[in-house]
Design a protein that fits this description.
The chain is of the alpha/beta class. It contains 6 helices and 13 strands. The chain has a single domain, classed as Purple Acid Phosphatase, chain A, domain 2, CATH 3.60.21.
């Protein structure tokens, strides 16, 4: 039986998967999977003249040579020009973007079958810092899904009788955002209130609809830079490497 592990935002730093520290990694094979829940950060450089390009190539090769298969959903800090231009291949009963023979992008709205489990993937989120970024250089409007992608996800769920085993996203349903950020007491300063408001992006409403419309066992997401079990179904993931199965 294949093993599946889950971790959160890496932002280009994948050293947590060093098998000298993560001992379990030594036991894995190319039949096993590590899933990163957005903001992978390893397809960031737009051209080979970028001063970080060689470093990115080095770490992609480093990850490629690990004994497992790496999968990732997109986050909000992702270069969507590169993600959207990856070769598409059929895998896990769905379509993935191929980075290399051992690294693949899990697309929005796909329902994959991995280790006999049905997994819904729906990456993306709205950046709360986009006002400090440059469009199509360090921020992409594609970070938020379009209606066609949302409709595709619903259509796929209908085909699967509105049932999956696990859900992998970058952000989370609106009700879970409320639990993570705590109640709005009305006493916080304007900057903090604005930041809190921005986490309620339109995607969280769509994911709330998904939550209330389907049957699932557990939902894993990143984005909030913390490791915490929210309840019996929702888990926010960052630095830890969780074993799913």
């Amino acid at each position: 039986m294949s093993k599946i592990y889950i971790s959160g935002d890496t932002h280009g730093d994948v050293r947590r998967f060093s098998t000298s520290n993560w001992k379990e990694g030594k036991t894995l094979t190319k039949n096993d999977y590590v899933i990163i829940l957005g903001d992978f950060g390893m397809l960031w450089c737009s051209h080979i003249d970028d001063p970080h390009y060689k470093e990115e190539v080095y770490w992609l090769d480093w990850l490629e040579n690990k004994p497992w298969i790496t999968l990732f959903v997109e986050g909000n800090h992702s270069n969507f020009d590169r993600l959207d231009n990856l070769p598409e291949v059929e895998m896990f009963n769905g379509t993935v973007g191929k980075v290399s023979d051992s690294i693949f992008h899990l697309k929005r709205g796909e329902i994959y079958t991995i280790a006999d489990k049905k997994l819904l993937s729906f990456g993306g989120a709205m950046s709360i810092d986009k006002h400090r970024r440059i469009e199509n250089v360090s921020w992409w409007a594609r970070e938020s899904p379009n209606k066609a992608e949302e409709d595709y996800g619903i259509d796929n769920l209908i085909k699967h009788d509105m049932k999956v085993d696990f859900i992998f996203t970058h952000t989370c349903p609106q009700s879970i955002v409320s639990l993570l950020l705590g109640p709005d007491t009305g006493t916080m300063d304007r900057d903090k209130a604005n930041e809190r408001h921005k986490f309620f992006d339109p995607l969280t409403k769509y994911l709330e609809y998904i939550r209330n419309s389907i049957q699932f066992k557990r939902w894993f997401f990143g984005h909030f830079h913390r490791d915490e079990q929210i309840d019996d179904k929702f888990v926010v993931v960052w630095n830890r490497i969780h074993r799913l199965i």
